[in-house]
Amino acid sequence: MQKLLGDRRAVLILLGPALLLYTAIMLVPIFWSAGYTLLDGNAIRGFEFVGFDNYVKFFQDPTAWETVGFTIRYALIMTLLQVAFGYLLALLYIFYLRRSSALIRTIVFFPVVLPTVAVALLFSKLFEAAPTLGPVNVILEAIGLNAVDWFGQPAASFGVIILMDLWRSMGFYAVLLYAGLVEIPEDIIESARLDGAGGFRLVRSIVIPLSLPVLLSSIIFSINGTLKVFDTVVALTNGGPGTATTPLTLYMFRTSFNYGEFGYGSTVAMMLTLLCLLVTLVIFRSTRRDPTKG
Question: Does residue 199 carry a pLDDT above 90?
Fold first, then answer.
């Protein structure tokens, strides 16, 4: 194996096809989109070089800043809830349900495989306010409260989106974190228990530090996925009311394909790419220290 890895020609033959495919699918579109940010127009009316005018327009666009605010708020809240609930479920699987957790894991994971449109239709009916009241509003009226127009108010719409995505995704993060927790050696857990550690102290001092790599991976996976949210919002609220629940991805789509502004749409896409890169770098730099030392 060492001889094979030391042969540059063999390494190039093994990695070359994968690198070419990655370059064609990932890197070329990124640089192509970066080039579009310097242009104005579309394929029908042609393109005109405008330099950095699209970037200036983005920073002066109040709608763009509103979508940035929604995207960051959604990403932070969803990442916190996804990873927290996933971790709690993983701890439940490991320390309480143990071998009998297979059925519960399957049930909790089931929403992950459901189509986004089907889940959005389900939640739209659950929280419906007109023409008929959905089950949630029926319950509210039954306990003496007023029905709520869940999709007519920005805060209420945001809450429904969070609830729907959390229900859909926490099973995935529970399984992902469970896979990391089962790798913790049992003898370390037993030794900690013999030393008097148990419950929250065991989790804080032993389980979390030893599961930090998979926990960090889950956070990065979640934050990058939620920053690029698109289908959930389109299927449930379509960015409404107004643009209150419009993320950067949907704003990019509308700008490019509804309004035919390929240059400005590419600029929005580039800003989203830079935002994802920045967040990932911040997470990596903030977790460089080994928590198991000192």
Answer: no
Q: Provide the token pair at 102.
A: 């297979």
Poorest-pLDDT segment among 33-42, 179-188, 221-230: 179-188
Q: How far is CA 142 from CA 136, 145, 152, in A?
A: 10, 7, 21
How far apart CA 151 and CA 126 sit, in angstroms, is: 12
For residues 73 and 280, which has the higher predicted lDDT (pLDDT)? Answer: 73
* pLDDT for 200: 79
Q: Closest by alpha carbon to 236, among 125, 147, 142?
A: 125
By CB neighbour count within 10 A (0-12 exposed, 13-18 middle, 19+ buried), where does 6 fall? exposed
Structure confidence at residue 87 as a pLDDT band (50, 70, 90):
very high
Write the single-letter amino acid at 203.
V
Give residue 41's region: left, alpha or beta (phi > 0; psi -120 to 50): left
